[in-house]
Amino acid sequence: MDRNEILQYSQTVCDGLRDDDDGLRRELLAHAGNRWSLGVIHTLGVYGRLRHAEIGRRMHGVTQRMLTRTLRQLERDGLVFRHDFEEVPPRVEYELSDTGMELLVRMVPLWTWIVENADRFRQAREVFDRQHADTNA
Amino acid sequence: MDRNEILQYSQTVCDGLRDDDDGLRRELLAHAGNRWSLGVIHTLGVYGRLRHAEIGRRMHGVTQRMLTRTLRQLERDGLVFRHDFEEVPPRVEYELSDTGMELLVRMVPLWTWIVENADRFRQAREVFDRQHADTNA
DNA sequence: CAGTATCCTTGCGGATACTG
DNA sequence: CAGTATCCGCAAGGATACTG
User: Fold this and answer.
1) Whole-model pTM?
2) Does residue B48 reach within 7 angstroms of strand C, measured from its CB?
3) Which residues are B94's β-sheet partners?
4) A57 partner at 20 to 30 Å CA-CA among A3, B26, B62, B87?
5) A71 and A108, same domain (yes or no)
6) Share of chain B above pLDDT 90, in %
7) Quick one: pLDDT at residue A29?
8) With contact defined as beta carbons under 8 Å apart, do B79 and B99 qualify?
């Protein structure tokens, strides 16, 4: 994929995002970029069907509230299926949909690259912050 | 790329994101997912070097403040170079760095997919919202 | 022209307590 | 167990006016 291909793609995408789709774009990326969304998608991708609490146990730090909210959003976008067995006590299982799986596929290269280049960013920031500190001093 | 490959990748990525990198991950995606970041990256990718106001003109709706802020963040992460000519009146040009270009490459497939599947999401949401409305009624 | 300063609204994310 | 209700702090994003 050379530079021109990239730009053409990029052009198409950004043209397709005019006005109306802006909300969609933001919302979608918001979900993908949410505090917990990626973790949930990943967890469900790896383990398949899981119950609410099981997901929570596999992601440290998430509260019940945020987990529920995240799952609702993902479900609303059709990325996750919710199977309610309507039993007592409640039993609900979550599962990544095909759409969710496709999203995961598209996300992974990006995340991989970010992680692999973590140091680059850290260094860039250090340099920037140092220079900025000098300016202020 | 089959399901297992995806999951392995995904596993690696998410393992690499434990604790410390969480901030990094969020910040980076925050930049990539910001209201204006992608637009700026794309614009600079397509047009090359541009002045502050030129970028603004090519992106409708962005305010001076947000454009400046976005550019600062991108610059801090090393995604964008800032060339200050130190003239009067001021003349500053912005340019996508190689790192920024690489990010653009990784983002494009994701965006393309989102845009191509916009309808899918819209429909999923409509269904969800309708069902939820019924529940409340 | 590029950028800062100020003020404001909104929604995310978290803590805690409660319910069917 | 799964989920809701309530309250809170914080930062993003925006509108507006000003400056070197």
Assistant:
1) 0.86
2) no
3) B50, B82
4) B26
5) yes
6) 45
7) 72
8) yes
Q: Which nucleotide's C1' sits nearest to the alpha carbon of A68?
A: D3
Q: First-to-last CA distance in chain A? A: 45
Q: What is the pLDDT of residue A80?
A: 96
Q: How many residues does chain A have?
A: 137
For chain A, state the CA radius of gyration.
Answer: 19
Q: Is A97 left (phi over 0), alpha (psi -120 to 50) or beta?
A: beta
Q: Token pair of A131, please?
A: 């220079």
Q: What is the pLDDT of residues A37-87, one digit of tens each?
A: 988 998 999 899 999 999 999 988 899 999 999 999 999 999 999 999 999
| Secondary structure class of B85 (helix, strand, coil) | coil
Of residues B30 and B34, which shows the higher confidence score?
B34
Q: Is B136 a member of any domain?
A: no
Residue B37 contacts residue B27 (beta carbons within 8 Å): no
Residue ranges making up the domain that contains A100: 34-129
Residues of chain A positioned with their CB less than 8 A from the CB of B129:
76
CA distance A68 to B40: 34
Q: Are residue B15 and residue B57 in the same domain, yes or no? A: no
How close does chain B come to A67, measured CA to CA in Å?
A: 17
Question: H or E segment at B137?
Answer: none
Total domains in the fold of chain A: 2
